[in-house]
Amino acid sequence: MKYQQKLPQLDQLLSDYQWLWHPQPFKQSRPAWCERLPVLTEQLLRLSDDELAMMQGDHFALLALLRPYLPELSDMTPLTAVAEAEFCALKPLNPRFHSAIPGRKWQQIQAFSAAVGKVERPILEWCGGKGHLGRLMAMQWQQPVTTLEWDAQLCAAGEQLVQRSGVDQHFKNIDVLAPLPKRLIQQQHTIALHACGELHCTLIRQAVAHQLPAFDLAPCCYYRTHEKSYSPFTDGLTLQLDHNALRLAVTGVATASRRELKWRDREMVWKLGYELILQQQLGLPYQPIKPFNKQWLREGFEHFCQHLAQRDSHKLPDNIDWQHYQTEGQQRQRESMRLSLPRFAFRRALEIWLVLDMACYLELSGYHVQISHFCDRTLTPRNLLLSARRGYEN
Ligand SMILES: C[S@@+](CC[C@H](N)C(=O)[O-])C[C@H]1O[C@@H](n2cnc3c(N)ncnc32)[C@H](O)[C@@H]1O
User: Fold this and answer.
1) What does the buried/exposed string (b/e) look like for 56-78 if buried means 16 or more CB atoms within 10 Å of the residue's CB?
2) Ligand 1 atom closest to Cα of 151?
3) How high is the pLDDT of residue 394?
4) Residues forming beta bridges with residue 373, ordered by sequence position
5) Rounded distance from Cα 96 to ligand 1 centre (Å)
6) Neighbours of 260 (CB within 10 A)
7) Measuring from each residue's beta carbon to the nearest atom of ligand 1, which residues come in under 6 Å?
8) In ligand 1, which atom is closest to the CA atom of 177?
9) What is the pLDDT, as a whole number, of residue 255?
């Protein structure tokens, strides 16, 4: 099915189910849908920790659990199916080439390069960090590379790596969101690995404005935009995505270590416990906790709450039963993790909707577009590749 057909259908499905995926059980202990689906609610709350972990990691097992209550979810699978990229063979390189690249990043850039295939033009690397991807592609295809990056330290580190490898790569310490000098964009083949929200949206707009002949983009962090909600590229869509929905599109723990999960769980339990104190002891309505010093998570629940209360000028009573609120936080966390499963079933669909929106806009702007995935989710959950070629390019 072509992208122009898929997008309106996925738009409709996601709009129809907004009542299920939009409420956040961490904010509302029982979202309104629990009354509509009481048997599913019970079943979710009864899941063991192992079953919960399995459902969090296995999208299809989760859909199978939900389908008896929501048969229309079957329509989501064909609308969100994405084929694996076609990979070309890369030339073997001296291991010294990648000794400075962290293992996972090295695997990502190899997979990305192999999925892009042969490049026959100079390369423009968008938000390239230390330019690892650009350097690999310069080696592979003997093309000059210009890497755009706003962090001067990353540019300097990248330039040092270039000297060792001897490739033709230059860094431009530049903010890609500001108007770019005309001479920078000159019909190159543009590549962008994990360009966050506003950065990849800007690339799409620049590509169309400059009629770039070819580009390959792996988007990430869709919620990193200045706008309160997402402005679609395509006209006529129903869905409106706020930051909550944009975050949901990238929620997941596919690459988190056990240690990271332990700290994540502690943070959730303590935040929920603290919120209950604010509500029950001070009568305050729910309010999101602003970012805080993570060091406070090492100091015990009581100190954690005292730090937050002091920072936010709340006077906590002296006789708080800390153990009680920590236990309540644990119970709330246990339940909200389970009641979040239905919304998690829509994560990939939301991400595909965002990528389809860009793909359709590019198609209407004269590009041949291909959406594929360039690696397994365990290597990076942001594994979608949007490849665009103007009519005459390979
Ligand atoms: C997620 S990193 C990806 C880096 C690299 N492409 C990679 O995959 O290793 C995003 C990069 O965008 C850079 N960046 C953020 N905002 C930028 C801007 N406005 N202009 C240029 N680069 C920017 C960051 O400094 C960072 O290096």
Assistant:
1) beebeebbebbeeebeebeebee
2) 25
3) 56
4) 84, 384
5) 24
6) 11
7) 105, 127-129, 132-133, 148-151, 154, 175-177, 193-194, 196, 199
8) 19
9) 64
Name the stretches of the chain with pLDDT < 70.
Answer: 1, 253-255, 392-394
Residue 151 parent element (H or E): none
359 residue type, one letter: A
Of 106, 136, 149, the residue with max ligand 1 atoms within 8 A of its CB, to mutate for a pocket test, comes to 149
**Whole-structure pTM over 0.90, yes or no?**
yes
- The predicted-structure confidence for 209-233, as pLDDT tens digits, reads as follows 999 999 999 999 999 998 889 999 9
Which atom of ligand 1 is least distant from the CA of 176?
A: 20
d(CA 70, CA 85): 31
Encoded amino acid at 101, one letter: I
Dump the DSSP string for 230-249. Answer: ---SSTT-----BHHHHHHT
Q: Which of 150, 206, 224, 385 has most ligand 1 atoms within 8 Å of CB, for mutation?
A: 150
What pLDDT shows up at residue 1? 56
Residue whose structure tokens are 């390019």: 393
Q: What is the pLDDT of residues 129-149, one digit of tens each?
A: 999 999 999 999 999 999 999
Distance (Å, whole) CA 215 – CA 203: 9
Whose C-alpha lies nearest to ligand 1, atom 26? 129
Q: Which amino acid is at 41?
A: T
- Which residue do the tokens 């990528």 mark? 355
Ligand 1, atom 4: closest residue by C-alpha: 129
For 324-378, give the DSSP string.
HHHHHHHHHHHHHHHHTHHHHTTHHHHHHHHHHHHHHHHHHTTEEEEEEE-S-TT
Q: d(Cα 7, Cα 359) in Å, to the nearest integer?
A: 9
C-alpha angle 281-287-291 in degrees, rounded to nearest 5: 110
Expressed in angstroms and rounded, the spacing between residue 356 Cα and the centre of ligand 1 is 23
Q: Are 193 and 112 in contact (CB under 8 A)?
A: yes
Kindly give the number of the ligand 1 atom that is closest to the alpha carbon of 109.
8
What's the confidence (pLDDT) of residue 103? 92
From the CA of 129, how far away is ligand 1's center (Å)?
5
* 172 Cα–ligand 1 center, Å: 12
